[in-house]
Amino acid sequence: MKILLLNGTIVGTKTKTLLIEIEKYIKKLQENYDTKLINLEDYELQFVDGRPFDQYNEDMKYLIEEMEQADAYVISTPIFQGSIPGTLKNLFDAVSPLAMRHKPVSIVANGGTLQHHLVIENQLKPILNYFRCLVTPNYVYTHTNHFSTQGELIDEDVHNRLNEMTRVFHQYIQMSKDI
Q1: Which SS3 state, helix, strand or coil, does residue 99 take?
Q2: 101 within 8 A of 118, measured Cβ to Cβ
Q3: Which end of the chain has a smaller Cβ tally under 10 Å, C or N?
Q4: Are 75 and 6 in contact (CB under 8 A)?
Q5: Span 104-149, pLDDT tens digits
Q6: Beta partners for 110?
Q7: Helix or strand run (H / E) with residue 143
Q8: NADPH-dependent FMN reductase-like domain: which residues (predicted)?
Q9: Could you tell me if residue 12 is left (phi over 0), alpha (psi between -120 and 50 degrees) or otherwise beta?
Q10: CATH architecture group of domain 2-176
Q11: What per-residue string of b and e applies to 142-155 under the rule 16 or more CB within 10 Å gives b?
Q12: What is the pLDDT of residue 114?
């Protein structure tokens, strides 16, 4: 079972830190999952404009293939200006609507205000529902105060919520095997 840990931004470190923590919790599970961390900052992204797949650069082709071949996802995103980053939306635009169908997805996000968690409800979940993903109900939203000045996750409650989200994500993966 291939789990894609997707950092949906090209700036900052907090969302990557969250994925690294989640990967630790996944590795503690009884299952032997194959996790892959993808940071969009490591790739030369192109705007999705409707051209055929083979006309995109190698990085875009790779990202699309990784998205479409994964069995489950943990998507990590910052919230910028009350929205998800364009880089993440651009990648969603490149993926076939059938590629993520019935696949488990958990969400973690970080924002500068406590109210930005609503972006998950009003933007990210509708996109994932369009793909007909199995979205876990307990996403984890973090705030700048949950991190040290060096970018380390220091909030014990967030660690507990990430652990619980991983447990539920695991259950969704088990359920998806029957679909």
Answers
A1: coil
A2: no
A3: C
A4: yes
A5: 999 999 998 888 999 999 999 999 999 999 999 999 999 999 999 9
A6: 78, 142
A7: strand 140-143
A8: 1-143
A9: left
A10: 3-Layer(aba) Sandwich (3.40)
A11: bbeebbeeeeebee
A12: 85
pLDDT in tens, 39-85: 999 999 999 999 999 999 999 999 999 999 999 999 999 999 999 99
Asked if 52 and 64 count as a contact pair (C-beta separation under 8 A), the reply is no
What are the residue ranges spanned by the domains of the chain?
2-176
The closest of 123, 124, 63 to 99, measured between CA atoms, is: 63
What token pair was written down for 78?
């910052």
Chain centroid, CA 26 distance in Å: 14
Task: Name the residue among 72, 82, 44, 49 with its Cα closest to residue 60.
Answer: 44
Q: Where would I find the H helices in 34-155?
A: 58-69, 86-94, 118-119, 125-130
**How many angstroms separate the CA atoms of 86 and 84, rounded?**
7
Spatial neighbors of 81 by CB under 8 A, at least 6 apart, are none
pTM: 0.96
